[in-house]
Design a protein that fits this description.
Length: 495
Amino acid sequence: MRTVLHTLTAFLLLVVLASTCLKAANEPASAESVELSKQGEVDQLKTRLDELMSLIEQMQREHREQQEQIAQLRSEIKTLKAEPNVPRRIEEAVEEPNTADDEMTRLRAMAEGIAGPKKEEQPPEEIVYKSRGLSLQQLNPEISVSGDLIAYYRDQDGTRQRSDVFLRGLELNFQSYLDPFSKVKATAHVHDDGEVHLEEAYYTHFALIKGATLDLGRFRQQFGIVNRWHEDALDQIQYPLALQRIFGEEGLSQTGASIEWALPEWAHAHHGLVLQATNTENECLFGDETLGVPSLLFHYKNYRDLSRDTYLEFGLSGLFGWNDEWEIQTAPDTVIAEHDALGTRVFGTDLSVLWEPADRALYRNVEWRSEVYVLNRDIVVPDGSGRDTINGWGAYSYLQSKVAQNLIVGTRLDYYEPDSKDYAVQPDISLVPLAYASDDPHRWQIGPYITWWQSEWVLFRTEYNYAWGSGMEEDEHVLWFQTIFAAGPHKHERY
């Protein structure tokens, strides 16, 4: 290419010189005019030479740019040839070019080979509009089902039935968003004898009060932590001993209104407050209430991160209610009713600590949870001797650890101490289990357990309970087996 440019330059110079000489030979003139003419021709020749040199330099620059592009394309072709999936037609198209135009043509052909055949443009798809109202199944609530199968073997003096297998319950859980501001939850509990009772059914509103959630309906109340959980969501087979004796075997569940606030963060901790006003359905605490005066509950929660892998949660609870009708035993076969509005109070505190390494949360953790319950209840003494107060308390603490992705081991220790009253048991009236007629009544229970998750739908648990004490029931040994199976979008959810 460089030789061609030099040849072209020399040829142009010869043409210019020849034309100048011919013009000078054909035009006779005076010496002065000839001199001026020669000087003008020289200037014109210099101008043309400058233009030619500029043109040559431009052509050289364009040539260098083409050479650089060709070198870059050759390098890319070598890289592509080294890849195993490059089509053979590209390798066949790579040949040493004879000229710059041939080189550009072949490179263009190779690029087209890499890109493949051009796709034919498809006409746009026709948009079909469908009525969402025809898919009314989308309006159905989400439904989950969970079964809780229990088997046990008991060894206790004075107990004839030592073993049994029963379906403790089949839960039907319904949940659905009603609109962008509210949802509904409901749980129907079906017992193995066919009895059905409504465990929870409440409406939740998110935006009625800024920063707060409102619940209306029947719900398990937020006293401590585990009372809020259903039986099939517990870490052990049964509720803690103190909770069962103070609130009843199924815990505290009543109907009313609940407001939960997420308070501003303060002192590196998150705070929450729950206020509830409910009716007095609980027979253990409010069986003598006839006026319809609601009970009041509060629960304060303090949550903080101790480290990246450890958190602590601390809570305080209080329940206040009244009873106004009391049974008085005036004679062996005579019971009369006396009316006097007296208060019932239950206080509680809870503490939870969880260590769960962020990089191994699915395989390892250690959890420690404890709660204390304190009862203070004013009564009219059933023997007619006047007013009195029943005091009792209880606690539990358990430690469990996830030792594998689907295996949890733990143990729970329970303690319950009711009040000691000589009048606790009358011929037709009994204050058990809140008070006993014996001296220093108390009961301990320890229960190690193992939980194996077969999958996220099924778990198996085995637990051993040993209970002992004085002034209450006989000591007992119980070996439990539990199977929990669940299906649906909210399986094993702790409501």
